[in-house]
Amino acid sequence: MVQGGDQIGPAELEGDLPMPAPEEATTAAHAGTDDENVHATRAAEVLRPHAEEAFAEELAALAARDDRPRPPRWRLSPWAVVTYLLGGTLTDGTVITPKYVGPRRLVEVAVSTLATDRALLLLGVPGTAKTWLSEHLAAAVSGDSTLLVQGTAGTPEEAIRYGWNYAQLLARGPSREALVPSPVMRAMAGGTTARVEELTRVPADVQDSLITILSEKTLPIPELGEEVQAVRGFNLIATANDRDRGVNELSSALRRRFNTVVLPLPESAEAEVEIVTRRVDQIGRALDLPPAPEGIDEIRRVVTVFRELREGITADGRTKLKSPGGTLSTAEAISVVTGGLSLAAHFGDGVLRPDDVAAGVLGAVVRDPAADRVAWREYLETVVREREGWADFYRACREVGP
Ligand SMILES: Nc1ncnc2c1ncn2[C@@H]1O[C@H](COP(=O)(O)OP(=O)(O)O)[C@@H](O)[C@H]1O
Ligand SMILES: [Mg+2]
Hints:
Structural class: alpha/beta
Number of helices: 20
Strand content: 5-15%
Helix content: 40-55%
Bound molecules: adenosine-5'-diphosphate, magnesium ion
């Protein structure tokens, strides 16, 4: 009797608690065994899947068709990596979308560098897709873009070499178990691609810890009297900002370990419009925003304004302009348009219009309230106002700011 009562009590209580119903629990357990399922669900839920997840199908199709020689531990041949980056159509009709829009030769140099014993340095002004290209290179070459060190003024040596789990270290002393490998160490051990973002922001003495890694291809661990030797297939991609030059410029010893590829700004307005449209569409789909192509006129306008102000001259070459201090990069055009689409979706009629982008344009152009405002005002009154078909854009800009 007592026993039975006890059994009923807790069971009734449980009914009130937010416990998973038995069916749910079974489904979850079942899904847990189905690798592919979990992968797909995760990729759909994650705000920004890694390149190798987002483009898993393209990478698999390329790997299946790719019969050219692959360097040790590469997932694809250098040719297939370039196709992944620049896009193309495979013999079976599979379409590979372009990830990077720019000179083919430059991408070929970047990819072939990774197949040598020299590391790759991507250099350029902000917003020229250094980070983007580095992620896609790592995804295509190694199938893993996550071995990443973010360089800042506060990046410690442990972030590039290794650190310790202090609880383990105190309990058992230095051992392999207590060692916390850096992404670079893991890439060396696995023969894959490591990434270092914003290398020139890293303090000079910390940068120097890369010299032994890149020249001797080994990472000594003096505390254990051991070393981790890089396995074939290991290489490193670093990015650095042109404008940071002089902050912590690379030592010549380190510079010699890298092949440098300078990423240019898009060469034409059409190329830039294409980049912005494609990226906005991708980002917008992840955020359930309206399709970008319907706002193509506005995208053209944002790109034109950014290019003209960046270059200090109108597209027809007739009027000289004051350039504001902001970078007005492709990346910023992408965020202005994405922000505009969000406005259009939530507060407008779902189509991108001038007053959806005006505030974003103003925010990107006027960084310094004094000087930039003068430049913007002048541009607005002498160029935008007079331009045929731009009256609605002019009005929208006047409404959001002085
Ligand atoms: N030439 C290009 N081809 C493709 N995408 C580009 C290009 N230039 C800029 N982008 C886009 O700009 C965005 C920002 O680039 P990012 O890699 O963060 O710039 P960086 O690291 O050079 O400052 C990315 O979403 C990328 O898709
Ligand atoms: Mg970057």
